[in-house]
Amino acid sequence: MYIRRKKVKGIDYAYIVRSIWDHTKRTSKQETVKYLGKVSRLTQEMIPVEYRNDPAIISFITRYSTVNLKKNDSLTKKLGQDLFRMLSAGDLQSIIKIYHKYTNLFGTIQFYDNLLKPVMYDIGQQWAAGKLDVVTEHVCVNTANALIKIIDNSQLIRSTNRHYKGTIFICTPNGEQHNLACNIIESVLLSKGYKVYNASPSLPADSVINSLDSISPDAILISITLTDHIQTTRNLIRKIRARFASLTIFIGGLAINDPNKTYDFSATSLYVIRNMMLADAIKLIRSTIVRTRTI
Fold first, then answer.
1. Domain ranges, residue 14
2. How many alpha carbons fall within 13 Å on the CB side of residue 153?
3. Which of 100, 211, 224, 275 meets the CB 3.0–4.6 Å disulfide criterion with 255?
4. CATH of the domain at 136
């Protein structure tokens, strides 16, 4: 039993549906149980009592209904504050509980976008401003990376039956030691059925070229956290393009997210992932790989 969305004239409408096995055609088909109206106005009270506490139903309402938007924002803010304290204390077990609580309602991608990334950005800003000591900053980063590894292990078990989507090589320019963003995007890509080679952080250009030669990925994703490494990244791109004329390149990271600055990387088949939610970034990667495979 689950809720299905159907768009009519640009408006999403919701239906409770269930899958029924057709013995004649030997396939499953959907049967509408109840029409619920506009997705944006959906509340739990509109759901038949027998389905009201179904986790899939609750998750759908929490994620898409604007009626619960203020409540959801309040929950995200509260859990974000808790996550900050627990990262600072290195309390991995409590963080795992927050992860499960949030993902049961919104999903893993939303956990990364709405909780972990903003909290880690705040930690970085406080450290840069001298409000957070370097030991605490390192504890936060290492604990966050430990959480991502745990998430990856659970995601891989569920994603083993997913159709193979392609191979992605992830790296940072030489000298770039920050790789939390690389680990997050790797986690999401793995869950979607991609094979990922995460070679971050800090990889010399020649090592990148040698790896690309042996792996032959569908695309390379380069993450830049510090603007000091923009020129190093340009040099890396030139070397990649000299050896691989058509390899798809994605550039992302905190260094290029500043809306007041623009950077020209001047390369064909290069896409900049700038101020983009993870779900949109994955859509861009997927559609680009699919398109290049058909050319």
1. 2-64
2. 5
3. 224
4. 1.10.1240.10
